[in-house]
Structure to design on (257 residues):
């Protein structure tokens, strides 16, 4: 086994949680019940027809859109790698972001859709910047932007990185397409949702877990860092056992000492 593959195995063992944030993950369910013929009002029918005519001349509404990921296949792909995957849907434009920010700070890898409710990346940027508040705070962190945007390779160099560098970060590109930037042990990567497309940066839901492991291993691949990751993984794995051993029944013995 090559050292690189060994490092990937350690990363997979270390990875515990991934959270994906998007504005449309689950299919919308219609709850309206069909009306009986005798309950139908002529004026109501007329108004309904006018509304349908108006909507047909405009863009489809948010409720008419279909999710661009399969949530079942998405979570199954992570489960097969032994990774917990949390799907977070920003159903409404006014949904608060603060709880999501706090959750992602406790998550190993954050995956963000770029455009949520046609906001041109405003919410994704807000969440991303909340995870990178202090350039002096050294953290092992991987952030993935997972988008359908055809101009996906402009997101980092034109929108994200200039603002981060103004805040004192020193992110540099590590690929020709400028879809991968790194500063110390923090890495930001943009992938395009596959949806029939091809190319190095086109990634399907099923491929995403392997891509995440690969990207994280490139910044942890080292003798010392592998040892630390392995140690953290063992502590995580045995945390329930440790807490079971060091329980409240030890208080009496501790106070006697």
């Amino acid at each position: 086994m090559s050292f690189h593959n060994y490092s990937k195995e350690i990363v997979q063992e270390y990875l515990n949680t991934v959270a994906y944030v998007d504005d449309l993950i689950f299919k919308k369910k219609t709850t309206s019940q069909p009306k009986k013929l005798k309950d139908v009002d002529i004026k109501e029918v007329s108004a309904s027809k006018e509304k349908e005519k108006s909507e047909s001349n405009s863009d489809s509404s948010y409720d008419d859109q279909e999710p661009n990921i399969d949530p079942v296949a998405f979570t199954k792909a992570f489960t097969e790698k032994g990774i917990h995957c949390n799907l977070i849907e920003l159903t409404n434009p006014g949904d608060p972001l603060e709880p999501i920010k706090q959750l992602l700070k406790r998550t190993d890898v954050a995956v963000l859709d770029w455009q949520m409710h046609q906001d041109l990346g405003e919410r994704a940027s807000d969440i991303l910047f909340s995870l990178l508040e202090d350039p002096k705070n050294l953290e092992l962190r991987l952030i993935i932007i997972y988008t359908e945007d055809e101009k996906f390779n402009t997101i980092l160099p034109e929108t994200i990185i200039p603002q981060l560098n103004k805040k004192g970060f020193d992110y540099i590109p590590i690929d020709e397409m400028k879809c991968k930037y790194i500063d110390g042990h923090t890495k930001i990567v943009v992938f395009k949702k596959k949806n029939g497309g091809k190319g190095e940066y086109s990634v399907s839901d099923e491929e995403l877990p392997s891509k995440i492991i690969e990207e994280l291993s490139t910044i942890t691949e080292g003798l010392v860092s592998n040892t630390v990751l392995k140690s953290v993984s063992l502590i995580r794995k045995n945390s329930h056992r440790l807490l079971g051993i060091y329980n409240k029944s030890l208080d009496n013995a501790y106070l006697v000492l």
